[in-house]
Amino acid sequence: MFRFHKTLDVITLFHKASSPASLRAQTLLKQISAHASETATEDQATDHAAQNKLQRTEFELNVTEDPPTSDQLRTILEYAGPEPGRAGQIVEGAADEADALKKLKEDPNRFQRPVIVDWNNGRAVFGDKESEIMKMISQLPKETNSRYGKAVD
C-alpha cells in the first residue's frame, strides 16, 4: 500500500556560537526536538495508539551560522510584523526593511542572532525568549498519525 508521510516543519536557528543567548536558544530547541521524537518500542508497551499519534511538536531543526539571504531576511522581516524599530532589532542600526537589506549586504555581522524562524507557519522569534520559542513550537500543527502520515484533529 502506498503511504504519504507528512514532512516535518522546518525551524531554522540563525546561530552564533559565541553568543550565550544563541547557545541557550540552541539548547532549548534541541531539547524540545529530542523530546518530541521519543516513542516507545513494541516491547515497552502493548497499546501503541499513543506512539502512533505523536504530538506534532516534531520538527526539523536547521542550525546555521550563516546570515540570511536577502530573500530570507525579507521573509523574516515580514514575519516580524510592522512594529516600529523591529528592523533594527534584527539588523543592527536598520531603520526599515530597505535599510536592513542594505546594512546586511554591507556587513553580515550586523545581523542580530539568535533568530528562530518557522518557515512553514510564518513565525519568527528574536533572541532567546524561552516563552516565545515554546509558544512558536506549541503552535505547530498538533498531531499527525505517524503510521499513515495523515493529520489528526
Describe this structure in words.
By secondary structure, this protein is α+β, with helices and mostly antiparallel strands. The chain is built from six helices and seven strands. It has helices at residues 20-36, 49-52, 70-80, 86-90, 97-106, 130-138; strands at 9-14, 53-55, 59-64, 115-118, 123-126, 143-145, 150-151. The strands form two sheets. It has a four-stranded mixed β-sheet with strand order 3-1-4-5, with helices on both faces. It has a three-stranded antiparallel β-sheet with strand order 2-6-7. β4 and β5 (123-126) form a beta hairpin. α3 (70-80) runs antiparallel to α5. Mean pLDDT is 82; it is low at 40-45, 48-56 and 144-153.
Short structural summary:
The protein is an alpha+beta fold.
Apparent shape:
globular
Order of helices and strands: EHHEEHHHEEHEE
Please give the count of helices.
6
Total number of β-strand segments?
Answer: 7
> Which stretches are low in confidence, meaning pLDDT under 50 for 5 or more residues running?
40-45, 48-56, 144-153
Helix proportion range: 25-40%
Averaged pLDDT, please? 82
> Structural class, judged by helices and strands?
alpha+beta
State the end-to-end CA separation: 23 Å
Major pleated sheet? 4 strands, mixed
Spatial arrangement of strands, main beta sheet: 3-1-4-5
Q: What portion of the residues fall into strands of 2 or more residues?
A: 15-25%
Radius of gyration: 18 Å
